[in-house]
Recover the amino acids of this structure.
């Protein structure tokens, strides 16, 4: 399984993904699920994937190969984030359909989160479904999750708004991943956190910054510990219901 | 959907269930999912159900009718909680199998939590699967959840141990249901909380106490508010990571 999260803030885009995949409980591997496509100053894209690993690797490799071969319609030739979502969505549907036609007993499906910015246009964030269609994040619904999403959703529901700060969003992502990792073995470190700052005034666009949280990361451990202890204190401070007394 | 939770503490059994069922998003109804079987001083059983409503109602009605008709092997004639789990499990399998034979396109499955005590024996808690087999709660794994369980699991994982107090268990159940209700429309009030105290020294056994949390319950609202504000304060008090500075 996998857990990926992307947040569209007024002040930028924040992405987070874990690195564990499993085909059965005894076949666990590490794969990075964050892919950055960067044409410096012109286009910055981040793609997160969950679902069938062969499908998602084929999608990412096809996108990269088309760029290398300067194929017509490759990502770096597109002029809007909407066109990026349409291109990735169409490719997703095509790959899943081709495999499913040959063997419909296997689940070849995958979901993707695609966010970024193209020079001259606004930042956008999309969730792409296995059918190739997609939805876009809005101020009312500023974050998308794919994969093992439920354990870490309550904290996001409580905390994240479109006008939250980047610091809060990253802190909340850490807390959300911590909850998921504690409750589900199939999600695990390292976690890759990426951030694309909003830069409305500039003709050029900044680069994606990424950080990988490895096992033993001191800041990660500090936040998880403070959160755990804080939760325990709040919990103890609440007076129990006396419904039977 | 449904969310049910049962906890086996050293000091007693705690149960909680919501009351919402849905067949599609536009067909939502209220049904109590907590069923108490009580033979005062001799046997106290609590059954929580999730899954196909027709299946679970048929199981509960059959158990009740067998008791009324003084059928051989009815719940009130059984001598151990293990026999109770076997009886409920066999009935569950039988009902699901009969319907599935006629129409395998519909999901007739259900899961049950069964806990209680029979005079002379210890308290026990079981989770019964659609196949009719079951597992028992232990000091290492003192709680079971069925239905829409993931949103409310992280807090239980952090807080509940076999030696937790009843007050803490009920408080944690409230917090767990609050998280689930906020993140998933298909789980809703009223919540029924039940409690069977442990009474190791007595020949007789105490009765199940139940309380129903209705919309507007002041204690429930107070706990949810204190929890929400406490979480926000803890979150704000944690220093953000400075991974890019």
């Amino acid at each position: 399984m996998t857990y990926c999260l992307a947040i569209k803030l007024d002040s930028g885009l924040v992405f987070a993904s874990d690195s564990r995949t499993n085909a059965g409980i005894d076949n666990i591997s590490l794969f990075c699920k964050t892919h950055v496509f960067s044409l410096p100053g012109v286009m910055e894209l981040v793609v997160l994937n969950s679902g069938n690993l062969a499908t998602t690797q084929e999608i990412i490799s096809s996108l990269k190969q088309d760029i290398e071969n300067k194929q017509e319609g490759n990502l770096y030739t597109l002029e809007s984030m909407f066109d990026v979502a349409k291109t990735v969505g169409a490719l997703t549907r095509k790959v899943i359909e081709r495999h499913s036609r040959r063997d419909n007993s296997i689940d070849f499906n995958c979901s993707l989160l695609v966010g970024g910015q193209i020079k001259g246009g606004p930042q956008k964030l999309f969730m792409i479904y296995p059918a190739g269609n997609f939805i876009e994040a809005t101020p009312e619904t500023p974050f998308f999750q794919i994969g093992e999403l439920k354990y870490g959703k309550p904290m996001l529901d409580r905390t994240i708004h479109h006008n939250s700060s980047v610091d809060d969003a990253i802190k909340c992502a850490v807390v959300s991943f911590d909850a998921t990792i504690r409750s589900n073995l199939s999600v695990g470190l390292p976690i890759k956190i990426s951030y694309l700052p909003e830069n409305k005034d500039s003709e050029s666009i900044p680069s994606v910054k990424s950080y990988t949280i490895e096992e033993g990361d001191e800041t990660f451990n500090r936040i998880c510990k403070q959160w755990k202890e804080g939760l325990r204190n709040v919990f103890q401070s609440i007076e129990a219901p006396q419904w039977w007394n």
